[in-house]
Write a structure and sequence with these properties.
Elements (H helix, E strand, L loop, with lengths): L2 H22 L8 E4 L5 H9 L5 E5 L15 E3 L2 H4 L8 E6 L6 H7 L3 H8 E9 L8 E3 L12 E5 L2
Parallel strand pairs: 1-2, 1-4, 2-3, 4-5
Antiparallel strand pairs: 5-7, 6-7
């Protein structure tokens, strides 16, 4: 499969899971939605549509988003995500979305040393985590993906009580 086809499959899976979660899963009504990795802002922009009226806080190393997809200054946290997001642990986010994988197994292995536990720490009980990397940690239960999405393409979890 070409890298272009792989990219399209990843973004399609991401969109389909976000839409599924917004329409089908009981995302807690209180708590912010956290976007770990703002990037160009496409996913942030989509989150604003499917979770209209919710506080969405985006984290990234540096601002590189399209001008139409930049959060308000109060909802944009810049710096190393591993460090900056820790300040939000225990604040009971309703949803955490993280698409910060690189596609390089050695680099992603470093991220996977801190991301699963951080995602769990950020969520309220029954909160939802959506990630391009597997979040294997105590407290997060993997949920089934919507039909048509390959099991190793994207991952969906709920924080256990």
């Amino acid at each position: 499969m070409s890298r272009l086809d792989s990219f399209i499959r990843r973004l399609t899976a991401q969109r389909d899971i976000l839409n599924h979660v917004a329409a089908e899963l009981p995302v807690p009504e209180t708590g912010a939605i956290l976007e770990l990795g703002l990037g160009n802002g496409r996913t942030f922009n989509h989150l604003r549509e499917v979770f209209a009226g919710r506080d969405i806080i985006a984290f990234d190393r540096a601002l590189a988003a399209h001008k139409s997809s930049i959060p308000d200054p109060d909802n944009l946290i810049l710096g190393e995500i591993e460090q900056t997001a820790k300040a939000f642990a225990g604040q009971n986010a309703a949803l955490v979305h993280a698409d910060i994988g690189t596609g390089y197994p050695d680099k992603d292995a470093i991220t996977l040393k801190w991301l699963p536990e951080l995602a769990s720490d950020l969520l309220t009980p029954n909160g939802i985590a959506i990630c391009g990397l597997p979040l294997e940690t105590a407290g997060l239960q993997q949920l089934p993906l919507p039909s048509g999405i390959d099991q190793d393409r994207y991952f969906l979890y709920q924080k256990q009580i």
